[in-house]
Specification:
Oligomer: single chain
Shape: elongated
Structural class: alpha+beta
């Protein structure tokens, strides 16, 4: 079978045949460096890491708790020996960052280097920070510990959303995930369980148990911020009155509508499915529009993990 390209100037895409030397790449294939976006990424890293380190030093350490990953290991070493965690983190991160340069994406690696080195620095200059809690009171200890978990989880998500990490065990878990297809979350959780178990021998079982609770709270805060509190839904609307439903959704909810041709397997009738991506807060309005026009309509609502594009998550 002979295939023809719509664009006569495009190079052939057959196996073993090199494209012509004078063939030019399309203009949109050239990568663009968005300085505004990169500066926002850098500012996000600096602010979030500073707040994280302040929470670790001001809320975790007075309670004898540990954070996740190699930060937790460095804190465990400090509790045992008094060695500063900022130096431990720096020593551990250097070989890991070399490994990241070799194995991982360049942009991710650059920002991870910046974030991890600044994390060590921020741990040092926030080491003596004091947050006004009465750490001798059991209720205050619990409140401060949970608050620290929420802050650390909340601040970690924007860094990941901007395509970076704070280094440490994130690099190892990412490499193991790529090599063995293990979920990163499972790898990190298993490592944190081991480190928290070791904490029981240093600061006692009660502190280790509280540390596990705090890590769990931190992961919940991280996941909620990463996915967004206002979740996105995908709607498939099946109705014979789709021509009336679609414009009302466009005009009243201001959401884009896609019409998908379909065919009923049982009846054999041609149908048109209305496809809409909307936020959770918009579901009630869309449901009201559809059922007011066609009470017999069927609406399938599906959770959507993330939407990148205009009107949703920025794609820069």
């Amino acid at each position: 079978m002979k295939m023809q390209h719509n664009n006569p100037g495009a190079p052939a895409a057959s196996c073993g045949v090199a494209p012509q030397e004078n063939a030019q790449k399309p203009e949109h294939a050239k990568p663009r460096w968005n300085w505004r976006s990169e500066l926002l990424t850098l500012a996000t890293i600096l602010v979030m890491v500073t707040v994280q380190c302040a929470a670790i030093n001001g809320l975790y350490k007075p309670n004898g708790l540990i954070s996740g990953g190699f930060t937790g290991v460095s804190m465990l070493i400090e509790y045992s020996t008094g060695f500063p965690p900022s130096i431990t983190l720096l020593l551990v991160n250097i070989p890991l960052l070399v490994l990241a340069v070799w194995k991982l994406h360049l942009r991710f690696t650059i920002y991870t280097i910046i974030a991890s080195l600044y994390f060590s620095l921020a741990m040092a200059f926030t080491a003596n920070i004091q947050i006004p809690f009465d750490f001798s009171d059991p209720l205050s200890r619990l409140t401060s510990a949970l608050l620290g978990g929420v802050i650390c989880g909340f601040c970690g998500a924007p860094i990941v959303r901007r395509g970076a990490s704070t280094g440490g065990f994130d690099i190892i878990s990412l490499l193991l995930s790529k090599r063995f297809s293990f979920p990163m979350g499972t790898i990190s959780y298993a490592f944190n369980v081991l480190v928290t178990g070791a904490l029981a021998f240093v600061n006692g079982l009660d502190v280790a148990a509280l540390s596990m609770v705090v890590l769990f709270v931190s992961s919940i805060a991280f996941n909620n911020v990463l996915q967004g509190m206002n979740r996105t839904k995908t709607l498939f609307i099946i109705s014979d009155r789709w021509e009336e439903i679609a414009p009302h959704v466009l005009e009243e909810v201001h959401r884009g509508v896609t019409l998908i041709p379909a065919k009923g397997a049982y009846t054999g009738r041609e149908k048109t499915v209305v496809y809409v991506i909307a936020r959770t807060t918009e579901l009630s309005a869309i449901r009201h529009i559809v059922l007011a026009i066609d009470p017999a309509a069927m609406i399938s609502i599906i959770d959507t993990r993330e939407v990148v594009g205009r009107g949703f998550t920025p794609n820069n």
